[in-house]
């Protein structure tokens, strides 16, 4: 009984090391560290698979070894399993990558309005569809601004609207002051560069990482105390490459969400790359909405100012 299942036990130890030491997996070769961290929660699926093997082998060694990755996974992600939302919240915010190839922008705009959010950020707005979104959303949102391929719609007045340079050569980020009934709020909207997994180049995230650093610098220099970042960051909260942003802001999903809040791909979400991050405000609820015509799902949060 003790000699059986040595290979299964060894795999459990390797799984434990990947979970516990994920930040030490180097990015020098194909950004493997960031790739691992993007899908890190899914490593937990290996535990029940190895458990089945250990039971079939009747291996006490493997069963004991499996306690290690189970405990580490629960320590990392157990807090996301239970709901943490609470009643209240002064403002509802929403962010949605609407997809440049969206064949139903009208329907997507109607879904956004149905969310009853007070502040809405849209990313990946193609120039030919901007007028459609403006026309559809104008009755629900009196104030709006589109900068490059990102836009902000609000029920409250906007001021200080300006693009944010994230070192791309074109505009994919913006900032605005939103005058809510509970005081001014600095709102950033961003769409960081996409990443790809290629056999010859690995996880191609270099441009995304540079833009993340630039966005982090802009937010660090923000003078208003209350800040919200809405956008498609093409990375998860576990990804070290986003540390310049995530080190100074809280995830509404992590603080007040129910579950992992995966948002992409819309048909079968496997990662939360669409983020609502806050500083100086208290998240009270965070959730993922139903699919629209996009390949991303919208995400929303209530915050208390």
Q: How many distinct helices?
A: 9
* Quaternary structure state of the chains depicted: single chain
Q: Cα distance, first to last residue? A: 59 Å
Strand order of the largest sheet: 3-4-2-1-14-13
Structural class by helix and strand composition: alpha+beta
Shape: elongated
Largest sheet: 6 strands, mixed
Radius of gyration: 21 Å
Low-pLDDT residue intervals, each spanning 5 or more residues: none
Tell me what the structure shows.
By secondary structure, the protein is α+β, with helices and mostly antiparallel strands. It has helices spanning 6-20, 32-38, 46-57, 60-81, 105-114, 127-137, 206-220, 243-246, 252-256; strands spanning 91-97, 119-123, 143-147, 150-154, 158-163, 173-180, 183-191, 196-198, 202-204, 227-232, 250-251, 274-279, 282-288, 299-304. The strands form 3 sheets. The chain has a 6-stranded mixed β-sheet. A 6-stranded mixed β-sheet has the order 5-6-7-10-12-11. A hairpin with a 2-residue loop joins strand 6 and strand 7 (183-191). The termini are far apart. The mean pLDDT is 94.
Quick tags:
6-stranded mixed sheet, alpha+beta, 305 residues
Topology overview:
Blueprint: H1 6-20, H2 32-38, H3 46-57, H4 60-81, E1 91-97, H5 105-114, E2 119-123, H6 127-137, E3 143-147, E4 150-154, E5 158-163, E6 173-180, E7 183-191, E8 196-198, E9 202-204, H7 206-220, E10 227-232, H8 243-246, E11 250-251, H9 252-256, E12 274-279, E13 282-288, E14 299-304
Parallel strand pairs: 1-2, 7-10
Antiparallel strand pairs: 1-14, 2-4, 3-4, 5-6, 6-7, 8-9, 10-12, 11-12, 13-14
Helix pairs in contact: 1-3, 1-4, 3-4, 5-6
């Amino acid at each position: 009984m003790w000699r059986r299942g040595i290979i299964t036990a060894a795999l459990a130890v390797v799984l434990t090391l990947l979970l516990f030491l994920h930040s030490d997996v180097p990015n020098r070769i194909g950004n493997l560290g960031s790739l691992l961290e993007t899908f890190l929660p899914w490593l937990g699926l290996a535990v029940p698979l190895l458990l089945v093997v250990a039971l079939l082998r009747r291996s006490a060694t493997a069963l004991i070894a499996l306690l290690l990755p189970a405990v580490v996974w629960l320590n990392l992600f157990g807090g996301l399993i239970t709901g943490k939302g609470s009643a209240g919240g002064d403002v509802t915010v929403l962010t949605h990558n609407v997809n440049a190839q969206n064949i139903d922008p009208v329907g997507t705009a109607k879904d956004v309005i149905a969310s009853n959010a007070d502040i809405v950020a849209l990313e990946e707005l193609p120039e030919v569809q901007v007028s459609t979104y403006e026309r559809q959303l104008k009755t629900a949102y009196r104030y709006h601004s589109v900068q490059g391929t990102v836009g902000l719609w609000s029920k409250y007045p906007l001021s200080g609207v300006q693009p944010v340079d994230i070192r791309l050569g074109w505009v994919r980020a913006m900032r605005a002051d939103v005058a809510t009934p509970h005081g001014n709020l600095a709102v950033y909207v961003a769409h960081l560069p996409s990443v790809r997994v290629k056999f010859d180049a690995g996880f191609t995230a270099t441009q995304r990482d540079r833009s993340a650093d630039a966005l982090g610098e802009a937010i660090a220099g923000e003078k208003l105390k209350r800040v919200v970042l809405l956008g498609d960051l093409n990375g998860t909260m576990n990804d070290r490459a986003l540390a310049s942003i995530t080190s100074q802001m809280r995830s509404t999903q992590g603080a007040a969400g129910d579950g992992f809040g995966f948002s992409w791909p819309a048909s079968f979400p496997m990662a939360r790359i669409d983020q609502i991050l806050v500083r100086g405000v208290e998240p009270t609820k965070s959730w993922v909405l139903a699919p629209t015509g996009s390949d991303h799902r919208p995400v929303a949060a209530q915050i208390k100012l």
